[in-house]
Structures are given as structure tokens and as C-alpha cells.
Amino acid sequence: MAGFLDFINLLKLEVDVYHNARVCGNWTINAHSVGQTCFHMATQGECVLNVPNKGQWRLKEGDLVIFPNELPHSMVSVKPLQGPQQHLPVANSQHLDGTSMLCGKVSFEHLANEHLLATLPKVLVIENTLNTPWLTQLREMILLESLSSEQSTNVIITRLCELLFAYALRHYLQTHVITNSVFALYTSEPLNKVIDSIHNEPQRAWTLAELASIACMSRTKFALLFKSVSSWTVMEYITWWRMQLAWRYLSTGLSVLVVANKVGYLSEAAFSRVFNKHFGCSAGQVRRGYGKRQ
């Protein structure tokens, strides 16, 4: 899964925790901003998640739900509670009956996130079980920080949530059959070394024979396998990966010529043509800030 980790690093995902509180009384939490990428977790207690036309889930303590593109939904207490709805600091409300809810939105600096989000289901629920020890451990760490009075706790919770999201994505890819997608390549064991080689040397003028040799296959067998797994030829993938890297490099302010050389193009003009065709905007626009995601 090294290729997937390279991809996640490329995205530069950021989490904004917009709710981390104990909800008491007769409470309901509704959708925050339809269309954004978001997640919810009951760090203490349980709740019921309702998504119109999709279903209803009882989220146990530590269960995680991800909306790649947030749908209208609501979360309510499992059992009826009395009194007005209150959102109280987790550390100061442990004596009260309620549910500690963690909610965050996820943003990406790179347009390649669209490939990732399109691979995920509309509502992704990951249960906190013995088969997801990473989820158990991260919930415990997030809760520990939520109960802390340290001023740095919000920064740490944010970083833990970024790890939580990355772990969840990897878990989904590892536990589901992904076909005809770039992510199918990242879970294909016969192609792991090939993907790693391409990622380690994106500027190299790779040949089909060299890549087939890395996979220990004939050129024909390798080409057919690569296409059947991803629906792309290996050369199409190389071009795609180079362009993703180029976007990232340009958004940091590197010159177009330097970026062209870093991703295997000797000619700035040739690189610019491919980049423009791929993204529908010029490399110069991205370098000047067009590519930065807010």
C-alpha cells in the first residue's frame, strides 16, 4: 500500500474539527454543510444516524461515519432524554447523561481528491471492533485529549483526526474489492513493486520492458494485467502520476521549467501542453495560486 500512502501525502488533507462536545438533553445534530467531506464519531456513548433514502445506523461508541460528499442527515440520542439541548465541554460534563460527539470536515489542497472520493460509498460506516484496533486506539487518544485541560489539546486532536481519516481510507481499500480504478493498483500485490518504482523515479523514461521485468512478467502479460486492474495502460498511469506531482510542485511556487524536469520532461513547452490538456488550466496559473484549495 506504499502507493496509496504516496497518494495521501500528495493530497495534503486538512481537518477542521467543528464539534467536539458532550451533547445533553433532547438533542439532534443535523448536517453541517451539504457537499463537503466530513466525518462523525461518538467518542463516548451511542447515537442513531438517519440519512434520508440511504438508511439508519446505530453508531456505537467509537464507530466512525464518513460522508465523501455530505448528504442531508441527522444524529439523535439512542434513548429519549429530558431537558433542553446543550453542547458542553467534554472535560466538564462527564457527570451528565449524554453523548460525546466529534465532528469534522476534511479539505484537500490537491484536485486528485476527486478520484478518491468517487471510489468511496455515499455513506461509509466503519465499526469499532476487534478487527479495527487502529480505530479503538485513536478514539482513546482523542478522548484523552478531549478530557485534558492543556492548551495544545485542540492542535493534537486535529492531527489525530487527520490520522483517523487516513487510516479509515486505507482500511476501506484493504477490506473492499476495488476495480477499474487507480486505487485498484495500490491494492494489487503483483503490481506493488511497479507502482513503487514509478513513484520513486517519476522522471525516468520508463519502458514497458523495464516495468514488466520489475513485475517478473512478460510484457504482454504485464500490460494486460495493468489494464485489467486499473482500466489504464501503464504509460497512461505514468502520465497521470506525473501530472499530479506537477500540480503539487507548482502550487509550492517552483518554476514551470524546474517542475517539468522533475517529472520527466526536457521541454517546458511539451510539459505545458500535457499539463493544460490534463487539468484544463495552465501550469502558470497553478503556480500563481490557482491550484491552491481553500
Total DSSP E strands? 10
As a whole number of angstroms, the C-alpha radius of gyration is 22 Å
Unreliable parts: none
What's the level 1 CATH class of the largest domain? Answer: Mainly Beta
Structural class: alpha+beta
Proportion in β-strands:
15-25%
What is the CATH architecture descriptor of the largest domain?
A: Sandwich
Order of helices and strands: HEEEEEEEEEHEHHHHHHHHHH
What would the principal axes of the Cα set say about the shape?
Answer: elongated
Report how far the terminal alpha carbons are from each other. Answer: 28 Å
Instruction: Order the strands across the largest sheet as they lie in space.
Output: 8-1-9-3-6-10
- CATH topology (level 3) name of the largest domain: Jelly Rolls
Number of helices: 12
- Fraction of residues in helix: 40-55%
Number of domains: 2
What would you say this structure looks like, in words?
With 294 residues, the chain is an alpha+beta fold. It folds into 2 domains: 2-175, Jelly Rolls (Sandwich); 183-290, Arc Repressor Mutant, subunit A (Orthogonal Bundle), CATH 1.10.10. The chain has helices spanning 2-11, 113-119, 133-146, 153-175, 182-186, 192-200, 208-214, 219-230, 234-251, 256-262, 268-279, 283-290, and strands at 14-24, 28-30, 37-44, 47-51, 55-59, 64-67, 74-77, 86-88, 98-107, 124-126. Strands 8-1-9-3-6-10 form a 6-stranded antiparallel beta sheet. Helix 7 crosses helix 8.
